[in-house]
Fold these 4 entries.
Entry 1:
Amino acid sequence: MIIIGLTGSIGMGKSTVAAQFAALGVPVCSADAIVHALMRKGGAAVAEVGRLFPDVVKDGAVDRKMLGEIVFADKAKLGALEHILHPLVTAQEERFADIETRKGAKMCVLEIPLLYETGAQERCDIVVVASAPFFLQKQRVMKRPNMTEVKFRRIVAAQMPDREKRERADLVVPTGLGKAHSFRIISHLTEGLWNAK
């Protein structure tokens, strides 16, 4: 099993690239989707998050918008939240890779926004970074609901700079040149890996 780590800063097109891998038949596990599940009603992280941030739990689920406003304004609180979430996310990713291996998959993708920040590259055979120019990144992110300039700047500041991610990557996928362009790059990579097996 070849584990491909897919990362990139907010608004860089990770989700689009992940969908392209999936369209090519590569199983994809999204860290963001895991976090959503952990924080919805009945999720494994709700109780512990509620102990640290009592006001953010409403009707048995974490209000992620409220939580985001708290943690992105305070690095210590963000670190405390990550201390809860990262081990739970890692365990789910490992379970996913395990299941796909047993199913006979030759490769899978772990889509991890904070891949380098959490050291997750150590669990991956190849790291793919989705990247776009800053103006395009900002344009995409500012279209999101409830996004503000201040919030955008805080999120970017909490992530490793795009330049550094690109330097460390095995493959950079530019997402500002159209979906067909990025799809060709992903196709070439997966074809090479399938043939190598």
Entry 2:
Amino acid sequence: MKALPFVGVCLLVTAVLTACDVASAQSDSWPTKPDASLTPGLARDDLTLDEICTTKWGTDARSVTAAMKQQVMDEYAFKASECPLTHLNGKAVHRVEIDHLIPRDLGGADDVRNLWPECYEQVEPNKSEQEDGAHKKDQLETRLNKELCKDGHPTQEKLDEYRTEIKTDWIALYHKIYGDN
């Protein structure tokens, strides 16, 4: 009898026991970057540099609706179960965020052309061992806003550079800023 590949066995066992979720949680087979044809990235044109630097992002009003989130999930044919297991409130769960490609704190728009499903990864003490996911991208977004706004002298050139780099490859930008740690 021919041996089944691990994935085949996992699918077989999952149908009966759902035991392979834990094993697949360590896999990095989930998408870590948006599809540029679905999420090209879109910035707001109604924000000044001063507004970008003085808004308390996360406490302001958002315009992303449940219908928009569902549209993004449908366009990507994505299910949260594709995400790795992470710990939340003492439980192992699959977590997905409908994330802004160009972050809101860099003037990213609340528009489906700027949204994509991004998995949360397990947080590791040694960041070089941490997979690429929503936690890392959130860390990068906060850092970019601080760098843009430091000393109270943001420039349009720096904002444009950050927007372009994050749209092109947020993971490469993360490593450019943080190195391999």
Entry 3:
Amino acid sequence: MIPMLHSLISNFAAACAPGSGGSFLGFPTWYKYLDGETVAGKCSPVMKFPDDIGEILLAVVEILLRVGGLVAVAFVIYGGLRFILSQGDPEKAASARKTIINSLIGTVIALLATLIVSFIARSLT
């Protein structure tokens, strides 16, 4: 239990290697694109205000896009359940099918947007 907790905390800490960031539960951290330094034995992000505002905003946008992707996947599941529970009613089935299609489109958009933001951020840093 303790090694897993240590791993979770150390993944959340700032990376001391330039350009690399940790993650928390699979989400990037807000300081993902910032450089890190070791201060008093602990690793912390190095921020140069106002130069690093863009990198922080890109990381926050990436986090929000990933959350949006998870919400879209949840709506796919919700639409699937509605389709199963429609019991052959054409109106309910059509509504559930529309929910599934729209959420799949949202998933693709969120995935592509996350990839584009990540690509832009990596090319700027």
Entry 4:
Amino acid sequence: MMDNPQSPSHYQREPPTSPSHEITLLSNTRLKNWLGERAQVNSFHRQAVAEPPAGFIVSARSGDHLIEAIEAEGRFALGLQFHPEWMFQSRPEFLRPFQAFTQEAIGYFKKNRRTG
């Protein structure tokens, strides 16, 4: 697949702050709520998820249909094939997964902390 000139590069040569291909975000996912319909992402992977495990759904795909993101149903867990930590300075929307993670952690702490 990586030798096909029609396929996006999944292991880019550009700096990690540069996008290398587009992904499409799927409906009813957290990632789509954060990033919109499509996003330009960086890419440094040589392997990908073939099928999401039980309890997970596909939340993004590349133009060659490769799974680029999965997320858990009913709890906060993400699997990303791109690196938003390198992209947020030029694309502030890439901070949203980190903000959501932080809020989720605060909520978990408040719910589960012991008093006493």
